[in-house]
Each structure stands twice: as structure tokens, then as C-alpha cells.
Recover the amino acids of this structure.
């Protein structure tokens, strides 16, 4: 059995750990198995590039950050658009899948990666997906690998921001990754003790945030810390489509709501206010202990699916059980924070402001 592996989209902790789980299971349990790594995600498959991945390589990957195969974002919307030579990227991937002699392809990635994997399945090719993203927004799984490591990093950052904010009596907005989904902001905001949490799923009212800041100082605190998702939306922007909101912000010289909110909060409360963008630190570094265990479970289970001939699926965590979903059922769907969920209510119940 010849197996290909690729990692696509933004990197995160756990990619190498998942590959290790796949590789060790396959070499341990599938006779005469051969594994090749495809560099740079779907771009490598489009180019027809691959390299051997012996068992010894997988044994070294447990706590290595990033991805040894490299990763490139390849937009889903471009997969079926004819290129200069008249063929589409999808057609090139299918041709190279055959040329490589693959019996199965593992695709490690987020929502876009899963949509492309579903396209390959629809063309009759054997694909198994694995849910990777710090955003935790892949439909059908409770958690994605990489999320818990990022959660540890962001929580630590918020806690560190608190001590410096206390020292100087400041209000600090901490911008967290998450365009469509606010899972990382919500969980890290709670774990880090933020005074306010602003999510893409709950358009925020500036007056409510200003009131929160004022009340925080009135309670005797020396600082106010706000965790804000990069995809946060003002309630006045909510009626507009994403592209329209982008133009509105560009007119202000901004791409997110963070700086705009920081300026208004500072003006209206009189508090010295700063914004800080955590950026790529959230995706880097070695995986946490949780993600190493979780990634191993996902990778091993994916290898088992291949051994059993179960294709056209993606691995998932439901409850405390590793299982799978059909790619066709989850492709193109996002798992977003429910504004009325228990965890949101828990945050509001202890006095955290969500801007509504």
C-alpha cells in the first residue's frame, strides 16, 4: 500500500505529531507499506513532487513544531479554474495522484483543506482528512489539533499582559487569531482572566465595552484586559458583508476592530489604552502534552482507517471518542461559537463582558 501525506494551510503545533501517529501505525500494521511526503501542501501535489518518508523519520517527530513537509495556502476557489495550459489544479492533482501510484492520501489541514479533499474524493480518489487549526472551527469535531497548544500560549500572553497593565494602570486589548470563530479568544479569555471577551459571533456594542472598562476601574482594579478576536465585528458593522466591512476599515487605515476600539475606549474613559497583536506566536512552537497525546490518537486512528479501507472521511473527536465523519458532510461548514452556549453563559455569569 502506497500512502501520501501532505500538510496544507496555516501551520500549527501538532502537525508533525499527527504525521508520526500515522506513520508509526502504518509501518507497524500494514505489510509492505510505503509512505511518501508531498511538500508544500496541495501545491506539491499540483507540481507532482514527493519524497520517501521512512519509519525512522516519523520516530523523531513527536515534539517538533511546524511541519517537516512545509505548507502553502492553496485557495479552494482556484482549484477548478482553468490555468494557462487549459487544465485545472484539480485535474493536475488527480493526474499526479495516479502518477505517484498512491492508494491513499492523508490531508492535514483546516476548512479549506477539507473542501479540496472532498473534491478529490468526488473524483474517485482515496482521501482521509485530519482536522488541523488553532481556530477550532472544523465542523463535526469537538476539538482540532493545535488548538490546545495555542490556547496555552494565548492564556500565558494574557496573564503576562495583566501584570504589565497592573504596573502601569492601563487598559490593554489583546488581539487573538480567529476570523470567523472565536473559540481561541473565548477559552483563553476565560483562562487568562480577561475582563471582556469580544468574539466574531457576537457583534459588540462600543458603549457596553466602555461601560465595562469604567466598571472595572470602579471596582478597584488597576487595569483592564480585553481579549478581542481578529474577526470581531462592531454591531454597527454587522449588517454589512465581510468585503464591505473591509472597505469601511480600510478607510480608517485598519484591518481589524482592535485599534479603533482602543482609541475610543481611551478617549471615553480617560484610561491609558493600548492594543497588542499576538500574531504568529500563536501558531509556533512544540505541541503541548495534550496535543501530543491528541495528535497521536488522531494519527493512529487515521492509519487504522486506511488499513480497513475506509476512505472519503475525516477523523474527529466526539465526546472522548475518536471517530470519523464523511468529508462530503463537513466540507464547507464551520463550527462557530453559539452565543447562547453554556460556556458563553458561564463567562457572563462571572461578570466577563461580551459586549452585548
Amino acid at each position: 500500500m502506497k500512502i501520501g501525506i501532505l500538510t496544507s494551510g496555516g501551520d500549527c503545533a501538532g502537525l508533525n505529531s499527527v504525521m508520526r501517529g500515522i506513520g508509526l501505525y502504518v509501518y507497524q500494521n500494514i505489510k509492505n507499506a510505503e509512505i511518501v511526503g508531498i511538500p508544500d501542501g496541495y501545491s506539491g501535489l499540483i507540481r507532482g513532487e514527493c519524497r520517501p518518508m521512512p519509519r525512522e523519520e516519523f520516530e523523531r517527530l513527536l515534539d517538533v513544531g511546524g511541519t517537516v513537509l512545509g505548507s502553502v495556502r492553496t485557495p479552494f476557489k482556484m482549484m477548478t479554474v482553468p490555468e494557462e495550459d487549459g487544465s485545472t489544479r484539480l485535474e493536475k492533482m488527480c493526474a499526479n495522484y495516479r502518477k505517484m501510484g498512491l492508494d491513499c492520501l492523508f490531508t492535514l489541514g483546516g476548512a479549506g483543506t477539507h473542501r479540496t479533499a472532498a473534491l478529490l474524493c468526488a473524483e474517485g480518489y482515496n482521501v482521509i482528512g485530519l482536522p488541523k487549526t488553532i481556530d477550532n472551527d472544523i465542523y463535526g469535531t469537538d476539538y482540532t489539533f493545535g488548538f490546545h497548544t495555542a490556547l496555552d500560549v494565548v492564556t500565558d500572553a494574557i496573564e503576562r499582559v495583566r501584570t504589565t497593565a497592573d504596573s502601569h494602570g492601563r487598559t490593554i486589548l489583546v488581539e487573538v487569531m480567529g476570523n470567523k470563530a472565536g473559540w481561541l479568544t473565548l477559552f483563553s479569555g476565560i483562562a487568562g482572566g480577561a475582563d471582556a471577551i469580544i468574539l466574531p459571533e457576537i457583534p459588540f456594542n462600543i458603549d457596553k465595552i466602555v461601560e465595562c472598562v469604567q466598571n472595572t476601574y470602579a471596582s478597584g482594579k488597576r487595569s483592564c484586559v480585553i481579549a478581542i478576536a481578529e474577526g470581531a465585528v462592531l454591531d454597527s458593522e454587522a449588517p454589512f458583508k465581510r468585503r464591505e466591512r473591509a472597505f469601511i476599515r480600510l478607510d480608517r487605515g485598519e484591518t481589524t476592530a482592535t485599534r479603533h476600539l482602543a482609541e475610543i475606549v481611551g478617549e471615553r474613559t480617560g484610561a491609558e489604552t493600548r492594543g497588542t497583536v499576538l500574531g504568529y506566536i500563536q501558531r509556533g512552537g512544540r505541541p503541548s502534552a495534550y496535543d501530543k497525546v491528541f495528535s497521536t490518537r488522531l494519527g493512529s486512528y487515521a492509519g487504522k482507517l486506511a488499513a480497513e479501507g475506509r476512505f472519503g472521511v475525516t477523523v474527529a473527536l466526539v465526546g472522548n471518542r475518536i471517530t470519523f465523519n464523511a468529508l462530503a458532510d463537513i466540507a464547507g461548514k464551520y463550527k462557530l461559537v453559539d452565543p447562547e452556549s453554556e460556556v458563553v453563559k458561564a463567562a457572563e455569569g462571572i461578570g466577563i463582558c461580551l459586549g452585548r
Q: What stands out?
A: The mean pLDDT is 95. Residues 148-282 form a domain with the Rossmann fold fold (CATH 3.40.50.460). The longest strand covers residues 2-7.
